[in-house]
Design goal:
Layout (H helix, E strand, L loop, with lengths): L1 E5 L11 E3 L12 E6 L2 E7 L14 H11 L3 E10 L9 E3 L2 E5 L24 H14 L3 E2 L3 E5 L7 H9 L4 E3 L2 H10 L3 E11 L14 H22 L9 H4 L8
Parallel strand pairs: 1-4, 1-5, 5-11, 6-8, 7-9, 9-10
Antiparallel strand pairs: 2-3, 3-4, 5-10, 6-11
Helix pairs in contact: 1-4, 2-5
Length: about 260
């Protein structure tokens, strides 16, 4: 099964789906899972913000969301999300298949291992290289402008960055910014799920050097760009899902090897 986590403005994927309410040891996920198939591949869709966008980024129960997808049978998780660009060459409408993240969140429940057992899971390569390759190839096949690597800095939200913060992130060489890729990515790794982030660039962040006229981003602007690009996200997912291998992803199935003390 392939799990899809929909971001801002992307609340529905399957036209004919069975809705399944899930309960987990970590509380309820953001919404019932929508279960169906794409080219005979089982798919579970979950809108991370809820069906009516009722969960702001800092209030998303990511532990319940990932746990519910795994309990439903997912072994692959593709996670599109709206993101701001921190570099002039990363343009609005581009897709970025990130290979690294910077965590600037705080107080989020970001592990399943709260003790008494000590488990330290490597985050050196936080996104599945295999799944990233399939997504990059899918973008290129469809003619979607794609960056085949990038660092996403994840901020706490729900506020957007100040200009000073944005200039700092940009000066560090980070590529895109959003509010949800962490702890989602690491929780997926702790569950040995093959996870990849696809950042859909909706705006230029406010601190880009040489782009002093960049206006402050608004939530309405982000939603409008996502709505215009939802069809491309769907095309990418419907292209990639049938091509994913039946065999497990070794990068992810071995995530807990050597992690326990």
């Amino acid at each position: 099964m392939v799990g899809i986590i929909g971001g801002s403005g992307f609340y529905r994927l399957l036209d004919d789906a069975e809705m399944r309410t899930m309960h987990t040891p970590y509380g309820d996920p953001s919404a019932p899972l929508a279960l169906g198939t794409v080219a005979e591949v089982p798919v579970a869709f979950l809108p991370r913000h809820g069906v009516d966008h009722e969960f702001p980024p800092h209030a998303i129960n990511s532990r319940a969301n990932l746990w519910a997808l795994r309990e439903a049978g997912a072994s692959w998780v593709i996670a599109p999300c709206a993101s701001g660009s921190l570099q002039p060459h990363v343009r609005v409408g581009d897709f970025v298949v990130c290979d690294q993240y910077i965590d600037r969140t705080h107080a989020r429940r970001d592990t399943y291992f709260d003790g008494p057992e000590a488990v330290h899971v490597s985050a050196a390569d936080p996104f599945s290289p295999l799944l990233r390759t399939h997504l990059i190839d899918g973008c290129r096949h469809l003619g979607i402008p794609v960056h085949d690597r990038g660092t996403v800095v994840v901020i706490q939200g729900p506020r957007f960055s100040t200009r000073a913060e944005s200039r700092w992130y940009s000066a560090m060489g980070w590529d895109v910014i959003n509010m949800t890729a962490y702890p989602e990515a690491h929780l997926a790794r702790e569950l040995c799920l093959s996870y990849a982030n696809v950042s859909l660039v909706t705006d230029y962040d406010v601190g880009l050097e040489g782009m002093a006229d960049v206006p402050a981003v608004s939530a309405q602007e982000v939603a409008a760009v996502v709505a215009r690009n939802n069809e491309r996200v769907r095309d990418l997912l419907f292209s990639v899902i049938p091509r994913l291998p039946a065999d497990p992803d070794p990068h992810c199935t071995t995530a807990l090897d050597g992690a326990r003390i």
